[in-house]
Design brief:
Blueprint (H helix, E strand, L loop, with lengths): L7 H24 L23 H7 L2 H34 L5 H7 L2 H4 L2 H23 L11 H24 L4 H9 L4 H30 L2 H6 L7 H8 L6 H27 L1
Helix pairs in contact: 1-12, 2-12, 3-7, 3-9, 7-9, 8-9, 9-12
């Protein structure tokens, strides 16, 4: 039996799609070595100082504002991912396995943060925090230096609220094919509910939980609109910082930052794939 001959048009279309997707990334990486400070035309590879062609990378690591923005971004991303993954997993288990009053309403409400434009959510969250903080500050008559204001806390809470529906839906999709007889067998053999969840349920749904966590982490890293409306002094993230640079001259330092960010994401995705393959 002879193998089917692949259509050259199919191969060509696939190549064009990959070029369209990854050519901008290649250009971004190449421009991180640009000798020009304007970052509009490529004028050759930079070769300045002891760093040589990695001049802009050295400049990047010496920029305190970038380091602070990176630290804030990672703190927000890790904190919101952990919280939203735990809450989203519990919500998925409750919706999949239990019947309770308001279940249909809860399931429908999960889709609102997903389908609602981010700018609408951002404005809504801003109004909510402003009204709540204003009422608390006035009611308790807090001094100026102790008043509740926007900052890291409001950004983290906003990211958690935004990520929970995504984690819930991903984990629940994993639970659709779950065989409840495995849990019943474990409990028949003497395991309690906690041991059954730790030894049976969790390992089986772990790929779905990991996928939901990765999605929440990515959403938090890349989010700009909601962060823009809920951030405050000392809570600048990398997307907000890059947006501020657009008002001035954008140097190849931004390309160097984006290149490092792409490498970090590739490493995280590779680790995730490795864990899933082990499972």
């Amino acid at each position: 039996m002879t193998a089917k001959r692949q259509s050259p048009w199919l191969i060509l279309s696939a190549m064009l799609v990959y070029i369209f997707l990854y050519a901008p990334i290649v250009v971004l990486v190449v421009f991180s070595f640009n000798a020009s400070r304007t970052n509009v035309l490529f004028e050759g590879v930079v070769n300045q100082g002891p760093c040589g062609p990695f001049f802009w990378y050295c400049e990047l690591f010496q920029n305190k504002d970038v380091m602070n923005a990176t630290r804030n971004t990672l703190i927000i991303a890790f904190t919101s991912t952990i919280a939203s993954t735990i809450i989203g997993t519990m919500a998925a288990l409750a919706l999949q396995r239990h019947e309770f009053r308001g279940k249909n309403t809860s399931e429908t409400a999960l889709y609102f943060p997903i389908v609602t434009p981010e700018i609408v959510m951002g404005i809504g969250i801003l109004v909510l925090f402003s009204a709540a903080f204003g009422w608390i500050n006035n009611t308790l008559a807090l001094p100026v230096d102790q008043r509740l204001t926007m900052g890291m806390g409001t950004v983290i809470v906003s990211h958690i609220a935004f990520s929970i529906p995504f984690v819930t839906l991903v984990v629940r999709a994993r639970l659709h094919g779950f065989d409840n007889r495995l849990e019943e067998a474990a409990m028949d053999l003497g395991a309690n509910e906690f041991t059954t969840f730790r030894k049976v349920t969790f390992p089986l749904i772990a790929p779905g939980i990991l996928a939901g966590a990765m999605l929440a982490f990515t959403l938090s890293l890349d989010d700009f609109i909601i962060t823009f409306f809920t951030t405050g002094p000392g809570a600048t993230t990398l997307p907000i910082y890059v947006y501020g640079l657009l008002r001035r001259i954008v140097t190849p330092e931004v390309n160097a930052l984006s290149t490092i960010w792409i490498l970090v994401v590739l490493v995280v995705v590779g680790i995730s794939q490795w864990f899933q393959s082990r499972e």
